[in-house]
Amino acid sequence: MFGGNADGTLSFAQLSHASTYWDWILPAVLKSQKEELFRLQILHMEDLIKESIEEEEKSGLSRAILENWNVEEIYEPELHEMLQEQFAFSYPYEKEQ
Questions:
Q1: CA–CA dist 41, 51 (Å, integer)
Q2: Neighbours of 16 (CB within 10 A)
Q3: How far is residue 86's CA from residue 81's CA, in Å, rounded to a whole number?
């Protein structure tokens, strides 16, 4: 079903029975095995658990950094000044309403 004809085209039967996305994509992927269009990686449950734990650890570190952030220190003076100007802005006729 997936191989197609010798010239690489799909047969009438393949075309007429194609009902899902994969019916169109898999023949193209199998045809292009010489060229690497996709990187196929088989994941095992252990790999997924390990990756999940690593993400949780990174998230925990980020949270700890944010929770212990020194809010009194100005890390970017130019950005701080620009934000101060933006927050201090008021429309000229705002008080007339």
A1: 14
A2: 9
A3: 9
